Structure prediction request, 410 residues.
Amino acid sequence: MKKNLILLCAVSALFSCGKMGTEVETPAEAGIPVSDLVFDLSVEYTAETKATKQGWENGDAVFVFFQTISDYYLKMAYDGTKWNTELASPGGSLPSTINTQGKTVTAVYRPFGSSDLPYYTPSGWRFATQYTYYMACEKVSHTLTKEGNKWVMTAELNMVNPDDFVQFWIEDAHAENELYYLSTDAVIPVAIAQIAPDGSVQETTHRRAGEAMMGYPYGGGYLFSGKLNKSYGGTGYYFIKDNWYDNERRDYLVTGKKLVSHSAVILPANGSSKWLQVGPTKYVELKKGKFSLGTWCTCNYGASLPEQVGTRLSFDGAVAQHAASESQFRDIMSNCSWAWTTVKGQAGMGIKADTGFLFLPVEDGWFEEYWSSDSLDDVDGWFISLIKGSSPDILPSGRNGYCAVRPVRN
Prediction:
């Protein structure tokens, strides 16, 4: 446990998972001027895995949210020796006083999301990026004590991983320069969706087992995190590893082992012969004359052959797998010939450019939807609709829906 007493003229706070002292006075109903606050901050790293990351490091940040308060939050930044504290507002304007009497606090730590600042919506606090690795401390009571002319807010934040959290690590000396994804039917890539007004941490519900976990460079390799798929009953685990910069996918089978909550598994290093190549994943550049229309994967995500529809993903999953953008779909709609055709018995849309050809399979033979990587708003994303007998169309749809995905390289 690291404990720091921090005096700030501008802002601060302190929180507690247990009883931390006795109030001398009750703060005024109007609140406490921020210049009168003293912070006694106690933050404990209680990770329950044997993963590579085991404690606080320079640059780590913990975000603290006050129950039912929407106009400010507390950011605690670790500089390698102590926590520095800053009260912040999404709107940029802080109140002159704060009143947290009778309210709990919730703290969130996202190891690879320290620079991603929260914003408030009517349903709670959210982050722009959903990381699948996090620790939290929910609905913690705090104590306000008058000491001379100052008020001290105290509390202990015991940061823990969620139940059923699991992690995987792959050694790679070039981890900073490449982008990897890992998937297995035994794990769901769950992330924080929001912190509700009552202080509860709410997780994403649209991700499914087998969807990709993004790798975060750390410690000379990649960390992948998620939550156990409780409906998976096997003792063998089939992992698929995607490298965005390669023209191939590789798999690895673990047998005779069972994942349990807070497992930390070291998989073979990148480049190891233990990773076997899955079917070909190739790319083709489409061109209109000399004008490039992008470099497109010849197969859908989750497919090893062009005629396979592959794995349908939610909008966030499609973005993570580099789905073609709305503008890229519009470019090939405007500059290529589209025709309903059949490849190896599978119906779908054939797309012919001056240079290059793509096939978008349609599993049932008459209708398929493909996500783009662009959203209309917080609710809807853009997708391309393929219907036999009709021209392709780009439309908005709820981001929780599942569609096919055609990745692009650029």
Notes: The mean pLDDT is 84. The first strand starts at residue 2 and ends at 7.
